[in-house]
Design goal:
The chain is mostly helical. It has two domains: about 5-110, Rna Polymerase Sigma Factor, Chain: A (Orthogonal Bundle), CATH 1.10.1740; about 125-200, Arc Repressor Mutant, subunit A, CATH 1.10.10.10. Helix content is about 70%, strand content about 0%. It is built from eight helices and no strands. The chain has helices spanning about 5-15, 20-45, 50-75, 85-105, 135-145, 150-165, 170-175, 180-200. Helix 2 (about 20-45) packs across helix 4, helix 3 packs across helix 6 and helix 5 packs across helix 8 (about 180-200). The termini are far apart.
Length: about 200
Amino acid sequence: MNSSLTEDRDLLSRCFSGDGEAAENLVRRFSNLVYQAVQHTLIVKHVRFNKQDLEDFHNTVFLRLFEHGCKKLKQYQGKNGCSLATWIRLITVRTVLDHLRKKGVDSIARRDTQITLDEVYGLKGDECDGLTLLERAEKEQLLREGMQNLPPRDRLFMKLHFDQGLSVAEVAAAMQVSVENVYTIKHRAIQRLKTQVALAVG
């Protein structure tokens, strides 16, 4: 096994064990590749897009890689010299094509890709005061449903910060935005999630 594949497997192993630093490294390492693959796929399919569309697809791809206990990443075998980069590029292309098939090429501007996350129960303290009267099972169900209605960037923040345990500064580095911007994302995401839950309880 060459050094590149060994490095890939080591990075994945640490991601599977819940290593937040490894998750951050994976996002940073493959961000440009994902952006390029998304853009290339949309161009080939003659689909108009803007910067926000690229960002939404980028974040959705990483959500897909990390969700359900890194299920998609665990499917990577590294056979016949296939690198992790090649696998992630394949997942990226499939994600874009799946969206185009399900929503239609004219619906990108709606930005309503639905991604289910099962591991978003880490809200605590003053961030979930509005949820404390709910029974745990009901709360988890409502959180799952509420997460589906958040923008991809908000869902990726929730995944990295609450599930992977990255600090705000580490999330900022992984998502390639400023720390101030991440605090804005955090506040907005939590408020949106509370709103979704309130509407469901309503």
